[in-house]
## 1
Amino acid sequence: MQIKDILQLSPESQSVVVKGWVRTKRGQANIVFINLNDGSTIKNIQAVVEDGKIEEEILKKISTGACIAVSGTLVASAGSGQAVEVLAQTIEIYGTADETFPMQPKKHSLEFLREKAHLRFRTNTFGAIFRIRHALAFAVHKFYNDNGFFYLHTPIITASDAEGAGEMFRVSSFEPNAAPKNEDGSVDFSQDFFGRETSLTVSGQLEGELGAMALSKIYTFGPTFRAENSNTTRHLAEFWMIEPEVAFYELEDNMNLAESFVKYVIQYAIDNCKDDLEFLQTRLLEEEKSKPQNERSEQTLLEKLNFVVENSFERLTYTEAIDILLKSKPAQKKQFQYEVGWGIDLQSEHERYLVEKHFKKPVILTNYPKDIKAFYMKQDADGKTVRAMDVLFPGIGEIIGGSQREDNYEKLMTRINEVGIDPDNLWWYLDTRKFGSAPHSGFGLGFERLVLFVTGMGNIRDVIPFPRTPKNAEF
Ligand code: ATP
Ligand code: MN
């Protein structure tokens, strides 16, 4: 049985075996207390060793980090802080840990723990984060399954470079120094494994659209790769993305789907991760005590999550947002680093002003200028904007990017030529606009940005087990 379940039992001196890793061991004159954790819950179970019950030789080998199995009886706890504890009869040691074990019971910085990513799971903080991450992933599948969507596995290796030119990791089986060359000296990819240039995918959307044009409602949930050299707290080189794609959905339906989806998964975490969220909330409050009053958050973590679930997201167009920004105090006082004007790609500082200062709630911005958005977005009648939608979250900025897709063959071709993409590489994508084209929409949610928001953590490297960032792929 796992510790989570044992802690729920009523103590009747029944026999139990608890297996886990030692968090702390405290000794008094005639009694030793060992706190064990097996990751099933943030709570530890206390094993009590009475004088003489366990050989000194064995007890000596037990210290923080060791893995043991304690057999004994489950009794009501004499101490405060826990309802039940285990009176040890025998202890088996699976693996000892000496004093060089880095996760000693004291405060560690998140930076230190990143360097010990192989062991940081054994802290309360990372245990909580990865249990919440799991619950959110499960909720994603549950939401889409319960709403009639099919989980579609789009390829990780792709030949289409239409979306993220220059930001892709190459996939090749050539030896670095022995790649066959064409006459002009360029690499001859026709001799490579796939007979063409291939890369790791930056998005499953284009293939997802092919699925939606038959199955109507699909979603992907898989790894995504971007070779962008952005060393920020919100970018990873390898991250997980959820991309629903729905036939017959227009922009408005797409916004409704995005809003109800995000609210559902957050509510799922609130309902199923109570202990872990409360732990992270307390951790955050502690952390903020060292900050000046005006930099502390106005809401606790759980207040923030409940606020998002209970309030509707503010919806406005890009053009309306630019007006608000132009009239804003920071624009008037020239406090924005990047100047505001119609046509700019909104910077994080602009997004955060809208979300955190102006509306004080999540915002969905729509109808962006076509020149700053991808070729496949549906063009508006004005010829200037496209049916894009970005969902912006407090503390995060963009959490979702999506759009209604251009379903008109001629308009799509015109746009592809304008932006200089070779249509021959996308013949299969264009075919869907030739054969039974339909209005359709979809979006991409960055899973780690969602986990960041729900856990209240500040750095995206702390919400994925083994982060991949520039110059960092050790574990
Ligand atoms: P940003 O402007 O923040 O770099 P983007 O415009 O490149 O985002 P999209 O291409 O629209 O993002 O990707 C969809 C979603 O994937 C984003 O809304 C975000 O949640 C997430 N995302 C994008 N790039 C990254 C990254 N490098 N690391 C983690 N998540 C990302
Ligand atoms: Mn980006």
Note: The pocket of manganese (II) ion (ligand 2) is lined by residues 228 (CB under 6 Å).
## 2
Amino acid sequence: MPAVSLGTPHVRTAVSPDGRPDTDLLVDRFGRVARDLRISVTEKCSLRCTYCMPAEGLPAIAADQLLTPDEIGRLVGIATARFGVHDIRLTGGEPLVRREIVEVVSRVRAAAPDASVSMTTNAIGLDKRVHALVEAGLDRVNISLDSVDRQHFAELTRRDRLPAVLAGIRGAIDAGLSPVKLNAVLMPETLRGARDLLAFAVEHDCRLRFIEQMPLDADHQWAREHMVTAETLLAELGRQFTLEPLGRDDPSAPAEEWRVDGGSATVGIIASVTRSFCGDCDRTRLTAEGTVRSCLFGDAETDLRGLLRGGGSDDDVAAAWQGAMWAKPWSHGFDTGAPDPETFAPTTRSMGAIGG
Ligand code: SAM
């Protein structure tokens, strides 16, 4: 494992007792710097996607255990002003299910006027709230959509809500939140509708990306041998579209892109399993209850809510956050790299409970 190599001007040489350099940044032991903050705002969701949520939903979090909009704003202020975080994404659960979501966006924007503020959402109800959200400071949305076939969608999500999702997508486009990105989880069940999904994305000028399914389903059904490879997806899409490889926006970008039919549309594949990009990971996550989670597959979490409510200063909160990120595992929850890069540490939280 590489020793910490922190050649940036922000990093001073003195170290804390755990060996951490005296720096304002969110650094880890492997030299990565977190600048992308994902905040889960609720565990509740309007869908029950089989690869994410249990059929009965996640155990409810008591209202007083959730970070308040004020607390979220304070943490965002610390992240941006002290750590140089510049991308903030609200997620869940389903962020639109949180009653105070507009207030959350507005607190985030007030705390981080120059940051990019985005949301990952299933778009149910987005058409009704998109203008308020944009006015509050939302810049972009990533919308999850695995099928444009109503019955297939209902099977995958255990809810017959495709019309509401399509209305939400239309609302986002009409509100000028472009480019609207569509995320589909790549698995055997989504493969059969993949061409229709791409045709929909091209028609509506949305950027579709397929994400390899990770072992973060609440039902623990994920198995490596059931994974659909990029080659299989490309062969399926190639039956209808001409795809020209474009590579990546930059070498560390997670999505590899293809141009569709020689036009302006692209389709991307995020190979989270077969091409781990942990070495370039720049994420720090806050769960809805206010714990820092440094890695999707690392169950160690550090409580910030208790510090906020116990009268902790910004210095106290920042120090706890930096300590949590210093302990960030190297990859997939493992500290020194798994012998097989496609191995994942088992995690007690599913994707919906972490905030994807
Ligand atoms: N409810 C919102 C939504 O549907 O986008 C936000 C939360 S959801 C957990 C965030 C993202 O995680 C979605 O794009 C979803 O497809 C993705 N996701 C959930 N489970 C996953 C898994 N097992 N592997 C890969 N991506 C997953």
Note: Residues 45, 51-52, 91-92, 94, 120-122, 144, 183, 185, 211, 213-214, 216-217, 351-352, 356 surround S-adenosylmethionine (CB under 6 Å).
## 3
Amino acid sequence: MDNKKHIAILGSTGSIGTQALEVIEANTDLFVVEVLSANSNSDLLIKQALKFNPNAVVIVDETKYQEVFDALSSQDIKVYAGKDALAQVVEMEDIDMVLTALVGYSGLKPTISAIKAKKNIALANKETLVVAGALITGLAKKYSVRIYPVDSEHSAIFQCLVGEFHNPVEKIYLTASGGPFRGWTKDRLLSVTKKQALKHPNWDMGAKITIDSASLMNKGLEVIEAKWLFGLKSEQIDVIVHPQSIIHSIVQFTDGSMKAQMGLPDMKLPIQYALAYPQRIVSDFPRFDFMDYPSLTFEKADADTFKNLALAYKAMNKGGNMACILNAANEVVVDAFLKDKIGFLEMSDVIADCMEKSTFVANPTYDDFVSSDEESRVLANALI
Ligand code: NDP
Ligand code: MG
């Protein structure tokens, strides 16, 4: 085998997946694509496979299998279909690292399987840590697997911690842009449309995370993600609104010193850092110019109007399967909002209701997460 890093990308046709492929394309001396996967976007998956010549591709939607198989039949590329194939393909011997860039709960099973196969993880799919943080971090420890954050805030924290060895963290500040509705009142939010919610001021991302950003659920999920990635307590994690999205997050140490990581908002940087760690590779990404941003500003997050942030803290503090319940309900309401079946503010009400009514399990196993996810989805759908 060569000394390049062999990467499997789960969710290669999405926003993170396509940007990861741009990073790989610019650094073919360092990286090789081993696996590509899509849910149903067969056209793009085929194009990517023809360009990057991976060992295998997975199309989750089984009705698209034949089309992908036929298009790649003259290539030496294995083609698999179905959900279970994702969890199997990550075990392939040649893979060094799995980039989890799929959306939501669907990332849980393949991530577990990748960790058990001792593959390091570049984690974009934050929902996996939200749903089952104790299980995932426990498995990573057991199998000596590293989890490198791709989320920009967590990459920032990770970068600030490099070289600090065992110096304890006093607290961290996750920055939030505040989304398209920053400063809006509840009254104004009542009639918000999906078109408005899908317009993020600073980042161009997939639909689900864009709605999560508008509702502040994304920041709530990130608080939980940070707890598990960095082993922090609830009171050590704070959120600060920073509309310019230049400071990506901040670590405060026990001597009061604060380290921040900053740069223009561009996901390629944290993706590249996770793939290449501990190396920093030369890039031609646009550079930050102080004169373009003469003032960087900060505000308190409005957790009264945007209830999701408070709900996420509540779920984290409760522990057990509560964050799994919150995540499942959120996936259902975001999907319903995107289909115009539910109002913007109603999303938080349904999530809060599911958290009240779902069965609480203090020490959940994998099977408990599966049934808990299912129960919360049924409840949320009934409430819409
Ligand atoms: P996208 O919606 O753009 O892409 C999702 C990818 O996952 C696509 O390849 C999609 O396939 C695939 N996919 C979707 N659903 C399933 C499923 N049920 N099973 C298997 N594959 C599936 O999402 P993003 O790239 O925006 O986000 C990916 C993850 O990264 C999320 O967890 C998000 O929170 C996180 N993240 C994203 C950031 C961003 O800038 N986009 C920033 C920080 C974190 P298909 O194309 O066929 O639908
Ligand atoms: Mg983020």
Note: Residues 151-153, 222 surround magnesium ion (ligand 2) (CB under 6 Å).
